[in-house]
Amino acid sequence: MSNTKTKSKFLRGILVGIILSGLAVYFLMPKLMIRVQASPDDLETTVQNICNQAEQQGWVISSIAKIDESVAKHRGGDVPRVRLINFCQPNYAGEILGDSEARHVSVFMPCTISVYEGDKGEVYVSSMNAGLLGRMMGGTIAKVMGGSVARDQKAVLSVVDP
pLDDT tens digits, residue range 27-72? Predict the structure, then answer.
């Protein structure tokens, strides 16, 4: 086989590999970035359990937003109940905000966990995969979000899925 044909096959193989990798990322990334767990408890109990566990891990609850009430007020009509628990761990936040190369991830601060009702009244908890996000970013972000935040997030969510 000629050298040109070999190079051509090699380049086509690389191109196909890139396309398949891109498709895999496109279809898998949403499922990897957002975790959804069913809760055995009702919505308010789930929210309280998560808040209690977060505080035990040294996190500060900055707010609990009742998104469904805001939507109903501004749009009208009922939607299922949704609570956004916003919380922060000051030491971790300080590490990230103190690093000028990492400060851009402040868009993900404070950490948020969503507790919401399904169509039949079942309760779900969704959270960002802090570990994966951190590892994708590298540096201080990988150290903090990929390590400490991911570990604490797992502990906080253990009240939903022990």
Answer: 666 677 899 999 999 999 999 999 999 999 999 999 999 999 998 8
Q: Count of alpha carbons within 13 Å of 8, Cβ hemisphere only?
A: 5
Gap between the Cα atoms of 134 and 146, Å rounded: 4
Query: What is the C-alpha separation between 127 and 6, in angstroms, rounded?
Result: 47
The burial class, CB within 10 Å (0-12 / 13-18 / 19+), for 63 is exposed
For residues 75-92, b (16+ Cβ closer than 10 Å) or e, as one string? eeeeeebbbebebbbeeb
CB 147 within 8 A of CB 154: no
Please state, in angstroms and rounded to a whole number, the distance separating the CA atoms of residues 7 and 84: 54
CA 155 – CA 35 distance, rounded (Å): 14
pLDDT digits (tens, 9 = 90+) for 96-105: 999 999 899 8
Which position has the token pair 């039949």?
120
C-alpha distances in Å from residue 135, one per residue of 34, 51, 162: 15, 26, 25
Beta carbons within 8 Å of 100's beta carbon, 6+ residues apart: none
Under 8 Å CB-to-CB from 121, ≥6 apart: which residues? none
